[in-house]
């Protein structure tokens, strides 16, 4: 008789990047972010969609789940859901989701197998529980974590701390399944207008988000700040973060010189602003300040613990430029960054807390790839191509050798949507939901930005490279399977692959081995055979402001609404017909008229 698997469900709930992770006997079976399903970036709210997704993918129901562990950094789930009974917070629970919640056994539950975990502990378990090391140190740095008063787990250094202080940085050591907290840095309560306290919180991640809000009118554009930083003038701004003799951080007050915030509600486009150099200089300053703090923290952690291995999570862990410097300068033998280092990764940490801390099971699973979505069937691919309007606009041919065919067309300068296998978990497209192009063309970056991505021209595109050739092309021997390390491009290669070289001579590298992604690896080999270059430009399969595509119909919609030349959908090679050129302007005109009517601007 076959023994029933043990299932643990981890959930990041209610605030940004709602997500779920399902463990089957201690291994990640499926994980998904809500934004991929609802098509709303960094989706908040109730978590019904993500729970349904992972359960349906596994073919089970909630009754089959042995343990549920949840987190929301705002408040413990129990407290937050009680408040939602009488408080209207639409971003956490709109009218439709209130109806979903009323039907869910997880809402307002008191079941003994449903637990709440504190925020940084969730990040810590996401970092060490499935890392490739038996022992090491853990670095968690993000914008804001749990209130000290809400942290109930023992050993989290809350004694004598202001109950309303919040987590900013947490440092741990681990050996096997044992995790020990050695230091926390707290955000003291601050004053603010109504609920904008986060903007003024004195912490590394919070300050980076504050600069993001200032430059882009969005606290969650930290990646764009990092990309803008090399365009700034060094030392044009005074430091935004200062390090004291004991490693304590101070944050000088902003004065009247900080008078050029971007106003997203104005008519002026960001790219045309006369404040551009001011923003570039500010981006340089916060990036430089953050790198200095993170390197000092990492060196302190190595010297204090003697650890040879470092694992990283928390939103600041997505700063691949800082990660690259930590690898090169902090002195650890190995550095591993969890692929979903931000709050989407909390779902993984919650699940593994249940496996290790609650069920007392050993660590056995290593994350060596991030392909945790479901795999869509051939029938679902064909269904996405079946609508009449899609048939009119596309020509689909089943390829007998999709890698060879795509490599040939890429080498001819075509831009591809590449949809294969299980979707990636986390913010990076890692070769299953990617836009791919030839990196040899110096014009390719601008071409993709203009025809496909429609994003700011300063933002770089990343390379994916055969792992065994990486050290020949990029500085350093370490591999980077999750695109979370920035490396210098070796001088002799800069002119050969200009489309992926940033203005500072770096690239955010993804390395790939055959066992990690066989089809992507073979595509690179075929491209190398034709061009001598084992590198492709790899960017996320989406347009600016939208999540990465998840399902075949998302890929088809993105293909038809952008300047992509081809779409590889499993083994189907899809091009656009002449009718596409006729129908696309008609659909655009119809959409514009419909918008005018909705706004009451249509005339008789």
How is this structure best described in words?
By secondary structure, this protein is of the alpha/beta class. The model is unreliable at 595-599 (pLDDT under 50). The strands form five sheets. It has a nine-stranded mixed β-sheet with strand order 14-23-22-15-17-21-18-20-19, sandwiched between helices. Strands 3-2-1-4-5 form a five-stranded mixed β-sheet. It has three domains: 7-122 and 349-367, ATPase, nucleotide binding domain (Nucleotidyltransferase, domain 5), CATH 3.30.420.40; 132-337, 2-Layer Sandwich (Nucleotidyltransferase, domain 5); 374-582, Alpha-Beta Complex (DHBP synthase). 34% of the residues lie in helices and 20% in strands.
The largest sheet is:
9 strands, mixed
Q: Termini separation (Å)?
A: 73 Å
Spatial sequence of strands, sheet with the most strands: 14-23-22-15-17-21-18-20-19
Which spans have pLDDT < 50 for at least 5 consecutive residues? 595-599
User: Helix count?
Assistant: 20
**Mean of pLDDT:** 94
The name CATH uses for the topology of the largest domain is DHBP synthase
> In the residues, how many domains can be counted?
3
Class by alpha and beta content: alpha/beta
Shape: globular
Indicate the CATH class of the largest domain: Alpha Beta
The helix content, as a percent range, equals 25-40%
In angstroms, what is the radius of gyration?
Answer: 24 Å
Number of strands: 23
Give the arrangement of secondary structure elements:
Blueprint (H helix, E strand, L loop, with lengths): L6 E6 L6 E6 L2 E7 H5 L9 H11 L8 E5 L5 H10 L8 H9 L10 E3 L2 H10 L6 E7 L24 E10 L2 E10 L9 H4 L3 H13 L5 H7 L13 E2 L5 E2 L25 H30 L3 E5 L6 H10 L4 E4 L8 H13 L12 E5 L2 H7 L3 H6 E5 L3 H10 L4 E4 L2 E3 L8 E5 L6 H10 L8 E5 L3 H4 L11 E4 L2 H4 L11 E7 L5 H14 L3 E6 L11 H10 L4 E4 L2 E5 L1 H21 L6
Parallel strand pairs: 1-4, 4-5, 6-11, 11-12, 15-22, 18-20
Antiparallel strand pairs: 1-2, 2-3, 6-7, 7-8, 9-10, 13-16, 14-23, 15-17, 17-21, 18-21, 19-20, 22-23
Helix pairs in contact: 5-11, 7-9, 9-10, 14-18
